[in-house]
Amino acid sequence: MTAAEPVQAERAPEGDALISIEGIQVHFPIKRGVFLDRTVGHVYAVDGVDLSIRKGETYGLVGESGCGKSTLGRAVLRLTEPTGGRVVFDGTDLSTLKGEALRTMRQRMQMVFQDPMSSLDPRQSVESILVEGLRAHGLDKGKEATGKRLRELLAAVGLPSTSLRKYPHEFSGGQRQRIGIARALAVEPDLIIADEPVSALDVSVQAQVVNLLEELQEKLGLTYLVIAHDLAVVRHIADRVGVMYLGGIVEEASSDGLYAEPLHPYTRALLSAIPVPDPVVEDRRERILLKGDLPSPANPPTGCRFHTRCPWRQATRCDTERPALREVLPGHRVACHWAEDIRSGAIKPHEVEAVLVEEDGISPDVPLVGPASVTEVLNP
Ligand SMILES: Nc1ncnc2c1ncn2[C@@H]1O[C@H](COP(=O)(O)OP(=O)(O)OP(=O)(O)O)[C@@H](O)[C@H]1O
After folding, report:
1. Which of 125, 158, 356, 366 is most exposed by smallest CB count within 10 Å?
2. Locate the ABC transporter domain: which residues (predicted)?
3. Residue minimizing CA distance to atom 1 of ligand 1
């Protein structure tokens, strides 16, 4: 199976990378027929992602719902089998591992999920939830040592040891997420993939959990891949940020660099949606209203995936040639043919009629980008 269109990205400098994701693809088959035995197309959920994360670093992955963030996280751990590309963890290509070797490597990579209530078994006490993880990795070393380890884990996430006998429903959302984090820490991982770790929590509790993740990172030298749709959360926690759109990374930079000078039109649109507290700045700042939904990953637009919604779109290169992710400023990579011209102002934004995109090529009567969708650019 091949991608809709291959594209060569410039590799991120690996340096002391703990994990390198190289051209990873996850294409889900779309099955039809009475016995679901006919493959009539593919959902290109992740379509050629390259990124690497250094030891001790926090990498934030952001993008709209459905752009492939969770699938990418699962593919890294091989919870979903990638259909292309490879993941190199601490120098080992994970695709070469099987059985015991894969299990041992997986122990070093743990996941924290969005909704602690559904990721914790309601019939299990906290003690058995935590012991289960230890046992699965052969780290259950007698009653006394295990009891000590469990108390240490709870203390690390700010819960009293009396929590051990309780059940998930007896805790608040924030406390449950602390249990989810303790479960991940139980096996002493190096990398934690946190998929929307605070988005199910009250705003007042979000900061506490983010602070806990930061404290644990400092104490234990952890490396994080934090997946979130909320740019504010990622800005707070991440050293570097990757912005995803329809299965690919369109921009990657240090957190400060990205927020100070977003270069990709999609990132500019995302950031322009966040209000600025200063009324003078708020009045003058660029606001880009993205109209139309995310096109279907079963039938992604040709060329640049974002061209159907892009106010800087240039015919016909954007419609036909998929831009590679390339370094435009030091450490700042952008997948846009015109990044330099947009940055200098040589190319001005314009109002565009969004191009109609047919759903997965199977039901052409369902437009995915609403008719008469127009991208407005206010105060350009
Ligand atoms: N098992 C699957 N089979 C088919 N399609 C899938 C499967 N899992 C995910 N998808 C599709 O892949 C695309 C990416 O989904 P994914 O959940 O990775 O996106 P996301 O950016 O994490 O969104 P959200 O924040 O809503 O979870 C979506 O169109 C989704 O419907």
Report:
1. 366
2. 31-271
3. 28
